[in-house]
Amino acid sequence: MGLRERKKLKTRLAIRKETYRLIAEQGYEGTTVEQIAEAAEVSPSTVFRYFPVKEDIVLTDEYDPVLEKQLRARPIDEDPLDSIREVIGQGLAAAVAEEYDELVQRTRLMVGVPAVRARMTETMATTSGVLVRALADRADRPHDDLVVRAFVAAVLGTLREAMLYWAEGGHREDLTELTDRALLTLRSGLRR
C-alpha cells in the first residue's frame, strides 16, 4: 500500500472505531454523523466521502480484496464450496481473534436496527461481485453466469443467516464452526 492508501485506511478505521464507541455509549439512533466526525477528528463531508450512509460505517470492511486474493490462490481443482469454506473460515477466525468486540457490536446492530439490516443486503452486492468474478474465473465461466451467481447468493445468504443466528443466540457459539456447519448444508441439503 502506498502512503495515500494507508492514510485513507487509517481514516476509515478511525471513523469506524469512533462510531462503535459512540454507539456503545449512546445507541445507534442517538449517534449522529456530526458526532462521529468530531470524535474521529474529520469533517462530516469526509465521513460521507468514505461512507455514503451511516449504516455503511457499521457494515463495510476491508476484507473483499483479501477474500478475492485468497480465493484465487486456492487449488483450481478444489470444490468451490470447500474453497469458500476455507477462505471464509480463515477470515472469520481472524476477525474473531482481532476484532471480536466490533464483530459482536456489528451483528447486534444487524439484528436490532432495521436500517442496518436493510442496508446489509445492498452492501453484500459488492462482496457478491468479488466472489462471482473469482469463482467464474476459476470455473472458466463468464462473469455473468447464472449458476455462479446463484451459488454465491446461496453462500452469502448462508453467511448472513449464520451471523444473525450467532447474534440472536447471544454470541455464545463459535462463529467459525457455526458458519462452517451452515455452509455445509449447501452440500448436504436438509436431512432428517
TrEMBL record:
Which keywords does this chain's UniProt record carry? DNA-binding, Transcription, Transcription regulation
Which Pfam families does the entry link to? TetR_C_14, TetR_N
Q: Which PANTHER family match?
A: HTH-TYPE TRANSCRIPTIONAL REGULATOR BETI, HTH-TYPE TRANSCRIPTIONAL REGULATOR RUTR
SUPFAM superfamilies on file: Homeodomain-like
Q: Which residues bind DNA?
A: 32-51
Annotated ranges, domain HTH tetR-type: 9-69
Q: What InterPro entries does UniProt report for this protein, alphabetically?
A: Homeodomain-like_sf, HTH-type_TetR-like_transc_reg, HTH_TetR, MftR_C
User: Does the record carry rRNA-binding as a key word?
Assistant: no
Q: Does the keyword Transferase feature in the UniProt annotation? A: no
Put simply, this protein is called TetR family transcriptional regulator
Transmembrane ranges?
none
